[in-house]
């Protein structure tokens, strides 16, 4: 897939199959991620690949965060969430090493956003879907504990769920004419 096709066709995937990923696809995506621009070469990103023993903890944290928001969950709602958090064959927690300087922190966050996009596009170029999620479960204290990240040192920027799409959604954009200005 050429770069432009990847850029234009990539979509955030919300529903994943359990199909395993090809050998090395995640490593190739991580290689692409760390090639992202980063000012002062701070390499502010850290990627934690969530292993099989930790995933069930993440699923439970996800359910608990939903309960806090919506109250007790029906069996059907639980089943849907278990599928949502359990199906994707790979979960990568992306975190930012916290710099003391607020300006540097902002730039580092921007660099990590670029890295996540590289990650998405590398996967997409191989036909693999992904999703950047930043919901409550991604910053719950229990998540930090489960994945071994010290919140004094790193901040979780998001989860990247990875797998094959069950459905590829279509997400519109406002047309260029509405978002581009040209000065005299
Ligand atoms: C910083 C950031 C956080 C996001 N967090 C979530 C999230 O928590 N849940 C979700 O469903 N999508 C999340 N997304 C994905 C966006 O919803 C998605 O990019 C948007 O709907 C456009 O869809 P597309 O990526 O298919 O073009 C996030 C995207 C970004 C950039």
Automatic annotation (TrEMBL):
> From the Swiss-Prot or TrEMBL record, what is one GO molecular function term?
oxidoreductase activity
**Domain Nitroreductase: residue ranges:** 8-164
Pfam families in the record, alphabetically? Nitroreductase (PF00881)
On whether Oxidoreductase is a keyword of this UniProt record, the answer is yes
**Keywords assigned by UniProt, alphabetized:** Flavoprotein, FMN, NAD, NADP, Oxidoreductase
Descriptive protein name:
Nitroreductase
Give the source's domain of life in one word: Bacteria
Q: Organism source for this protein? A: Lujinxingia litoralis
Q: Does the keyword NADP apply?
A: yes
Cofactor requirement: FMN
Tell me the protein family, please.
Belongs to the nitroreductase family.
């Amino acid at each position: 897939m050429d770069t432009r096709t990847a850029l234009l066709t990539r979509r955030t995937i919300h529903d994943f199959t359990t199909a395993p990923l090809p050998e090395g696809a995640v490593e190739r995506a991580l290689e692409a991620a760390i090639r992202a621009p980063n000012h002062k070469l701070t390499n502010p990103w850290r990627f934690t690949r969530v292993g099989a023993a930790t995933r069930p903890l993440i699923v439970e944290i996800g359910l608990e965060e939903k309960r806090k928001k919506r109250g007790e969950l029906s069996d059907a709602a639980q089943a849907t969430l278990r599928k949502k958090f359990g199906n994707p064959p790979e979960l990568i927690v992306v975190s930012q090493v916290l710099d003391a300087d607020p300006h540097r922190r902002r730039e580092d966050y921007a660099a990590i956003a670029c890295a996540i996009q590289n990650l998405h596009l590398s996967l997409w170029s191989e036909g693999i879907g992904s999703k950047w999620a930043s919901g409550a479960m991604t910053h719950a204290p229990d998540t930090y504990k489960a994945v071994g990240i010290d919140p004094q040192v790193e901040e979780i920027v998001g989860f990247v769920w990875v797998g094959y799409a069950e459905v590829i959604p279509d997400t519109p954009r406002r047309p260029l004419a509405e978002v581009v200005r040209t000065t005299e």
